[in-house]
Amino acid sequence: MSKQQQLDRIEQDIKNQNICSELAAGATQLVMGDGSLDAKLMFIGEAPGAQEDKQGKPFVGAAGKFLNKMLQSINLNREDVYITNIVKYRPPANRDPLPEEKAQFMPFLTRQIEAIKPDLIVTLGRHSTNAFLPDVRIGEAHGQPKRKRFNIEKTPGGERADELQGDAEARTDTDRASEDGALEASTQQIAAKLGGVTDGVSKQSQLAFVILPLYHPAAALYNGGMRTVLLEDFARIPKILELIEKDKAKA
User: How do residues 108-162 score in pLDDT, each as one tens digit?
Assistant: First the structure.
């Protein structure tokens, strides 16, 4: 099954299972994602806004325009990356997505991640960041890459879904060793070079990836100082991707 077929299947499953029916009833359309299906870089926000709901694409409003500028600052375009949100329907009046709404969409988001298989996931804003890293405060962790892994499981309906494993769940021998300071060499090098945090991903993990928490681009629209912070954090992305690529080559 091609990547596009996988994404089409996920979208159809969301509709067939009537996920977040109240949100769906008030939205113009489901906003799945946009960009390259072979992207090494995947951006995840929280939920569509008014323009996204109208156009059917994520990050096309004011915050999206700033995201485009940040991409250009590292010589990338939207066509080079993949962009999506946790929640696929616009919440009424652009309110924050509710915990139960995010929970309903997470299995579909993780299937989306498995289909794209990015090297680096950039979470935009606290809602997206805490969906993957629940104990992390974005004000302290922004710009610091963190390594996570998937545990592939079956949903009650038989469809594949990827459940994120937290730092204290499903510990492997490699993870336990990392707690004693014996990190895998390549992972240790990334942590040292980037100043980030790692949970010691096992090479036997079925799907592992690196998360880079960033502030939401909308933050720069209301706080001029945040614009500089975002641009500085964004400037680290090429180096992070380079180190991930070197890490993969050594595996």
Answer: 999 999 999 999 999 999 999 999 999 899 999 999 999 887 664 434 333 443 4
Give bridge partners of residue 197 from the DSSP assignment: 146
pTM over the 0.85 mark: no
* Confidence (pLDDT) at 207: 66
> CA 53 to CA 232: how far, in whole Å?
30
Residue 79: its H or E element: none
For residue 240, give the amino acid letter.
I
Using CA atoms of 230, 183, 134, 141 in order, give the dihedral in degrees to the nearest 10: -20
Please tell me the distance from the alpha carbon of residue 103 to that of residue 95, in angstroms, as a whole number. 16
Whole-number Å distance between alpha carbons of 84 and 223: 24
User: What's the token pair of residue 33?
Assistant: 């994602």
Residue in 136, 122, 131, 115 with CA at minimum distance from that of residue 207:
115
Q: What is the DSSP string of 172-204?
A: -HHHHHHHTT---HHHHHHHHHHT-EE----TT
The encoded tokens of residue 73 equal 């600052």
Strand positions, DSSP E, 16-107: 34-35, 41-45, 82-85
Q: Cβ(120)–Cβ(212) under 8 Å?
A: yes
CB 212 within 8 A of CB 143: yes
Based on its alpha-carbon atoms, the radius of gyration of the chain, rounded to whole angstroms, reads: 18
Structure tokens at 152: 């592939």
Q: How far apart are CA 8 and CA 23, in angstroms?
A: 20
Q: For CA atoms 82, 56, 68, 228, give the dihedral sign.
A: negative
